[in-house]
Each structure stands twice: as C-alpha cells, then as structure tokens.
Design goal:
The complex is a heterodimer. Helices cover about 30% and strands about 25% of the residues of chain A. Chain A contains 13 helices and 17 strands. Chain A is an alpha+beta fold. By secondary structure, chain B is of the alpha+beta class. Among the domains of chain B are: about 120 residues, Uridine Diphospho-n-acetylenolpyruvylglucosamine Reductase, domain 3 (2-Layer Sandwich), CATH 3.30.465.10; about 80 residues, Alpha-Beta Plaits (2-Layer Sandwich); about 80 residues, Alpha-Beta Plaits. Helix content of chain B is about 40%, strand content about 20%. Chain B has 19 helices and 18 strands. The chains are: A alpha+beta, B alpha+beta. Chains A and B meet through strand 7, helix 6, strand 9, helix 7 and helix 8 of A and strand 9, helix 9, helix 10, helix 12 and helix 18 of B.
Chain lengths: ~375, ~475
C-alpha cells in the first residue's frame, strides 16, 4: 500500500506508476477497483475552517469523524448528510471526506439541501500523468472558468486523485420533528411524500419503508429548524397529510436522529443476504419501478426519487427495469456479479463517448481506478 | 479588447453559407443583411462591438442541429446567444462568426408538480419560468437582476446566480437535465427528472461553460413551492467593518436568510435620490430577508435583530407591510439604474471570503482614490459576491481604459484574498485576460482539455474564457484543418 504524506509525493507516485492504481481513502465504500492500492489517508487534516464564512478546506484523506467533530463544535455540519457505508458493505476503517466527494455521497437531506456536489467549492487533485491541478476556490459563488469541481465530484477517482477539497458548510438546526404515517401502499405513500415536498413547509427528509419487521409500512417526513417553526410546520403538515392517514408527530430528537441515520445508512439491509442496488428515478415512477424489481425488499428515500433495493444475488436488476428516467448502481454484490453487470448504469453511446474522452484527457494511461466507471455502451 | 482577426476564407464563403442555412431554416430566421446583423454586434457589455457574419434564429432543437452541422462542415465559428444580457461579453461575435440566437425557442414543454420540475426551451426568459408555475404556488429560484430579460440558455451558460441564491443556490444547483446540441450537430440528452444524473457530472461542467461545449436547447429545472411569506429588515451602520461583522454573526447564528444585500454610501445616496426609498444616512446598509409563516419570520427576525443591535446600528427598520417591504427593496433593485443615471459604470463581479469584506472594501476605496475614479459598492454580502461599480465617462478619452485598469486591480485583489474573478457574470471577453491571475497554465490547460473533448474543432465561442495566447494553438490547428 502506497501512503504518500504530501500532494507532491502523491503526484510523483502517480507519475512513476507503471500500472493501474486503486485509489482509496478509508476503503470503506467498496469501490474495489483493480490495481496497486494508493491510499490518500496520509493527506489528512483541516487546512482552514471559517465558521462565519461557512467554509471548510480539508485534505482529502481527513476522516469524516474528525470533520464532523470540528463542525459540531461550532454547531455546524455538512448539510448533505453523507451515509456511512460500513454497515452495508461490511467494511472496516475510517471513512474519509475524499471518498464522500469521489462518490458524491448524499443522504436523505439531499432532497432539500442538495447533493455533496452542490456544497463543493474547490478541489485540488493529481491527474493521471501526475500533474497537480486545482479548480474552483473557497468562495460561495465562482464561475471563473469551467466547473471542474463538479466534474471531479462523483468521478470515483477516475479523472484524478483528490488531494484537497473546499466545502460550504451550514449551521446545524435547533430542532426536528418527524411525521409518521403507517400502513400506506407504495403508491399512496409516494403521493403523500410528493404532497409534503410540494408544500411550503420545507421538508428535509421524505422516506417510505414498506417492509418493516412488524409488518406495517412506515412513511416518514422530517422537518428541521428553529423550535417554534418546526412545531408550526409539523402541525400544518400533519393536517395536510391526514388525507392519507392519521399521522403522529415524533418529537424526540434522539429517536428522530436514529430513524434517519438508519434510512441514510440503509440499516435494514445490513444483515440481509442479497445484492444491494441504488436507483435514482423520477419520484412518481418509484412505485411502478419497485413493482418491476421483484426485490426482496425496498426502501424509498428522496420522496420516492431514490430506491434502495435488496435483490437475490446475481440478479440483473437493470434488465428488469428497462428504460426509465434514471439509473441504477450496483452497490453491494460479489466480484463476479460486479464484473458481469457493471457497477454503473450503461450510458447512451454519445454520453459514454464524452466520458471516455474526458478520461482519456485526464488519465491518458488509464491507470486511475481503471475501468470502474467505464460502462458498456447502450445500443 | 483584442479579438482574433476574422478569417478571410470564411468571409468569402458568406453567400454559400447563407444559401445553405436558408435551406434548413425559415427565410426570416437567417439574418445576413449588414443593416440587420448590427443588432447582434454586442451584448450588455456595450463597450465592445463587432457585427457577426450573420445571425440565425432557429425554432427547434432539430433546426439548431441542422445549423451547427452546416457551420461545422463549413468551419465557421458559432457564438450562441440567449437574450444578449451578458455583462461579460459572452455573446459578443467576431466578424467571421455566426450568432446562434435561441430567442424563438421559448415554449414550456412540461410542468410536473408531483416531481417538482419544469422542462422548457432555453430561449424562455428566467422570470417567465416562474410565470409558468406561480399560479400553482411554485417558483424557479435563481433570480439574476436581469431576470425579466435574460434567457435560461444564458443562465446555464454563465451559471447565473441572483439575490436569493444564499438559500436556494445558483443555476447549477437547480438544473436537472438538458438537451444539448454538439458542434457537429449531434443531439445529446443528459439527466432528467431524477436527481444526480448518472455517470460523470457532465451537467456540472456544461453549466457555466459559457456556450463553449454545446448549445443547450431544452432544460429540466427544479421548481419549488413558494414560501408562505417573506419579510425584509433594513439595517444601517456607521462603517463597512461593522456591517461585515454583523453579516458574519448572522450567518454563524444558524439563521439562513434568503438574502443579505449590502450597499455603501454612494449607492445609498444615489438610489435614495433616484427612487425615493427613504434610506437612512449612513456608511453601510444591509437588507436581510427571511421567509416562512408570520410566526416563523418573527422567530428568525428576532434572532437577527438581536445580533444587529449588538453592532450599534444607526437604524433598524423591520417591514410591517408588503408596501414597506417593497420600499426597502426599491433602492437595492434600482441601484444599477440609479448609478447609470449619474455616469457610465463598469460592474465588477469578484467574489471574496466573507471575512475579507472590510479589508477589500477599504482597498477598493484606496484604489478609487489612486485612479481618481468613484466607486459604489452594492452586492450579495451573504456569499461574498461583490459588485463594485466603477464610474467613468465614456466620452472622455482614456477614461474607459483607466476604469478597466482599476477593475483589473480590484479583481486581482479579490483573487489575492482567496476569492475569484467572477461570481456570477462569467469570464466572457471581459475577464479572459485575467485568467492567469487565478489559474496556473496547467489548470487552464485542464479546462481547455474539456473543450477539446466536446468541441475538438474549437468552433463554439472560441475566443472567450481563455486568454487568446493560451487558446491560440488550439484555434489555429482548428482553422488550418478546415
């Protein structure tokens, strides 16, 4: 395992590499590319944190725990609520910010606050030739040249090795409430969530769990903010949603935090056997897509726009779904299935050509997480 | 402003090009008479003008595709144009280029309230996107000052912001999908009504690429439910430092206003005279707006006013009616117009870390004295996006050049304190030659490599964003290849 301590050393290692490199932060997210392991964990530490400017600049290998703790001290947080993959993937180690950004990992609050990419202000990275590059900066608004910050976010280490990221952070909210509706069908639940999200009451979480141990489906709508405001909105929403089911307002903040951490981390699938898929779709089409999956179990987040599906091992879920407005990622499966089906949804030929073109420019030797995002082109 | 000299071989092919374009477009959609092409000689950066070879106004994605295919075959540069409101010269043509205007493509294709998205043709104006959904209580969040006139196409090209992006983000945060025509005429669809388009974030790099990667003809935009209400509060302070500290404290306190706007004395006095907003006599003025139900607004404003009082304000004025709210916003919204009444001005757009506000404002004042030019400051304080307005007299020889020199110094100052050249207007031609102050050659090379992939012949808006010397090798190879 190569673990350079500086960006310069990392750049030298990449430049000198004679074969594929498998880039990793904490190695908890199961990207598992082929090649000599190159760890970014040696590049660690907070470079700059200005709470009054909502700005955080950190080295890519900085553990998430360290970042969360530093932000909590100032009553702030990363608003996009990135999941911890360890439970789902059965992995160990320390998740790093580099992994979160490389995978554009966003949790339930994405529906309100936006994704990881929406909070990215700047990057430093090393491309496939070992050139040290940067884009963006540390300010909130920046249209100076092309936005390679977005391009690097979610590129899973295939265009460059992230060495430093600048992020916008937000204040933590004072209070939370969660409206709980029981026994709704998938169709009715997604309609209820859509109704809540289309209300002026600023929903920060909208999930539906059809299969629970006790058998009753649970639909959850989270609201966050100042105490008085949360109470007001929870009450309003409960009234709006009473058309679907007589709801109950959960106000215990500890319980709410646990419930949403479980949605974020896909806790119901942790100990279950089977492959895990993550489907991004048009929310209103979620229930029909879920019906086509014949999955062991599903969880809806993002108001129906994100489906986690647990399927029988080796199932080609994409074949069952056909064409739709969205895409499916194979998050957990054995090596054979991953190789056979591919982790990422095949893209239409013109988009795959553009992506391949970009990879060829940024990593002409095809050594950075080689093949990870390369998909067979759609006919 | 240096632009590449027109290619005489292209100029000589004008008749053939017109004939070919007339085959694929309506007769009145090909504008080639020199009296009429003059209308496209500049955008809102009016200091620089050059009529294009011709202009085309296609009505559909298919027509855009046909136009680009022909221009690609003929090796003619194409300058895409939304509504022509760019302050950076993003839509300024060269004499050998074709202006491709999307003004005739302004339909709403689909409104989908259940999924909170709208799909429009990109010639549609920003404000009329909200106009299409407001009856149902929804709105499109990015709100650039020019929103009455500016087109979504230009918003996407420049990744436009606005006063309310502190809470709702800029264009890139509200763009979910596009149909885009590549320079060779190929049509690609990226993203859609789902979140986080698959594969590499192509949408992210297309947004803000200033029309250099493709022509976006349709866009899927996120729409949001309108809040129950909004209310501004006006605060006057004795100094920029105190106003800056107040902004920082508000942000730290966990309140997320939808807007925090700043005006300095020159802007306060000028807009007060112009619009009669009744602003207080002070050095720095903040307008802070929050949203929600009346009780929620009370709760948030309570926190904000408490913070403001700790900073010894000269005046605190909370709106108690829609009329008072409108009056508080009146001066801010008429600021550019008011300043325009007293002189010509250049509007800069550098963004800085909020913590550097007081220092940068002081340095801008000093630079103004040094250059003998007046400067007004009106900007989005919450996110550090400054808009220094440097006043000059366009009829006075040398004044524009002096103003530009000072503008360049101000932008270098923004970069020096950890900020950037442009927060929401774009690079265009205006800041093109300052790019090396922000980025190393290798960083610019990486950006140009992206254009190589999307537009290998470097025909789309080629003389923008990158310093001419940096892009010359690519443009020359492309020119030699035809």
């Amino acid at each position: 395992m190569m673990t350079p301590k500086t960006e310069a050393a990392l750049a030298e290692l990449v430049a000198a590499a004679s074969g594929p490199l498998a880039i990793q932060g904490g190695g908890t997210r199961g990207f598992a590319p082929k090649g000599d392991p190159l760890s970014v964990a040696g590049l660690s530490g907070i470079e700059l944190y200005e709470p009054g400017a909502l700005t955080l600049v950190v080295q890519a290998g900085t553990p998430m725990a360290e970042i969360d703790a530093a932000l909590a001290k100032e009553n702030q947080r990363l608003p996009f609520e990135p999941m911890d993959h360890r439970g789902l993937m059965g992995s160990a180690g320390e998740p790093t910010i580099g992994g979160v950004i490389a995978g554009n990992i966003s949790g339930p609050r994405r529906i309100q606050s936006g994704a990881a990419r929406d909070y990215m202000l700047g990057v430093r990275f090393v491309d496939g030739q070992g050139t040290r590059l940067r884009n963006g900066g540390r300010v909130m608004k920046n249209v100076t040249g092309y936005d390679l910050v977005k391009l690097m976010t979610g590129s899973f280490g295939t265009l460059g090795v992230l060495t430093e990221v600048a992020l916008k952070v937000l204040p933590r909210t004072d209070a939370a409430a969660c409206i709980m509706l029981e026994g709704l069908s998938n169709e009715t639940a997604i309609e209820a969530l859509s109704n809540a999200l289309g209300s002026p009451f600023e929903v920060s979480g909208a999930a539906h769990l059809p299969h629970r141990p006790d058998g009753a489906a649970l639909t959850m709508i989270r609201i966050e903010g100042f105490e008085g405001s949360v109470a007001y909105r929870a009450d309003k929403l409960k009234t709006v949603l009473s058309a679907y089911a007589p709801g109950r307002i959960e106000a215990d903040s500890g319980k709410i935090a646990r419930l949403w951490a479980d949605v974020r981390d896909v806790a119901p699938f942790h100990d279950a056997t089977g492959d895990v898929w993550r489907i991004s779709c048009k929310p209103s089409e979620g229930p029909a897509l879920a019906a086509k999956m014949q999955a062991t179990s599903v969880i809806f987040d993002w108001g129906g726009g994100l489906i986690w599906a647990l399927t029988r091992e080796g199932t080609d879920l994409r074949a069952k779904l056909g064409r739709y407005d969205g895409h499916a990622t194979l998050v957990r499966a054995d090596a054979e299935t991953r190789a056979r089906l591919g982790v990422f949804q095949p893209q239409p030929a013109p988009l795959e050509a553009l992506s391949a073109g970009l990879r060829a420019k940024f990593d002409p030797r095809n050594i950075l997480n080689a093949g990870l995002m390369q998909t067979r082109q759609e006919a | 402003m240096e632009m590449p000299p027109p290619n005489p071989a292209i100029l000589a092919r004008k008749t053939r090009l017109v004939a070919r374009l007339q085959e694929v477009l309506a007769t009145d959609a090909v504008i080639h008479d020199t009296a009429e092409t003059k209308a496209y000689e500049c955008d809102a950066l009016t200091a620089y003008k050059c009529p294009p070879l011709l202009a085309v106004l296609p009505s559909s994605t298919e027509e855009v595709s046909a136009v680009l295919r022909i221009c690609h075959q003929e090796g003619v540069p194409v300058v895409p144009r939304g509504a022509g409101t760019s302050l950076a010269g993003g839509a300024m043509p060269t004499a050998d280029s074709v202006i491709l205007g999307v003004a005739r493509m302004n339909d709403v294709i689909e409104t989908d309230y259940a999924n909170r998205v709208i799909r429009v043709q990109t010639g549609r104006t920003n404000l009329s996107v909200t106009g299409a959904v407001e009856e149902n209580g929804f709105f499109y969040a990015p709100d650039p000052s020019s929103q009455l006139a500016c087109a979504i196409a230009g918003n996407i090209a420049m990744n436009s912001g606005g006063a309310h992006c502190l809470k709702y983000g800029v264009t890139t945060n509200n763009l979910m999908g596009v149909t885009m025509v590549m320079m060779d005429g190929a049509v690609v669809d990226i993203g859609g009504s789902h979140m986080d388009a698959g594969g590499l974030d192509l949408l992210g790099v297309i947004c803000g690429s200033e029309g250099q990667l493709g022509v976006v003809t349709e866009a899927t935009l996120r729409i949001l439910r309108q809040p129950e209400g909004a209310r501004p509060v006006l605060m006057g302070f004795d100094s920029a430092e105190v106003a800056g500290a107040c902004v920082s404290d508000i942000i730290k306190a966990g309140v997320l206003p939808v807007a925090i706007e700043y005006m300095d004395r020159l802007c306060i006095e000028t807009t007060d005279k112009f619009a009669g907003a009744g602003y207080p006599d002070c050095e720095a003025l903040l307008i802070v707006e929050v949203e929600g139900a009346p009780e929620e607004i009370d709760e948030q404003l309570g926190v904000i006013l408490q913070i403001a009082r700790r900073h010894d304000p000269v005046e605190l004025r909370e709106s108690t009616s829609p009329e008072e709210s409108a009056k508080i916003w009146l001066g801010r919204k008429s600021a550019f117009g008011a300043i325009g009444q007293i002189n010509d001005y250049m509007c800069l757009d550098g963004t800085i870390p909020v913590s550097a506000l007081p220092y940068v404002l002081r340095r801008i004042g000093e630079l103004g004295e040094q250059y003998g030019l007046q400067v007004g400051n009106v900007f989005h304080a919450g996110d550090g996006n400054m808009h220094p307005l440097i006043l000059f007299d366009a009829n006075k020889p040398g004044d524009l050049e002096l103003c530009e020199a000072m503008g360049a110094d101000v932008l270098r100052l923004c970069v020096e304190v950890g900020g950037c050249l442009t927060g929401e207007h774009g690079v265009g031609i205006e800041k093109r030659d300052l790019m090396p102050d922000q980025y190393d050659p290798a960083d610019l090379e990486a950006q140009m490599a992206v254009k190589d992939v999307f537009d290998p012949a470097w025909l789309l808006n080629p003389a923008k964003v990158f310093p001419l010397a940096a892009s010359a090798p690519r443009r020359e190879v492309a020119a030699a290849a035809e």
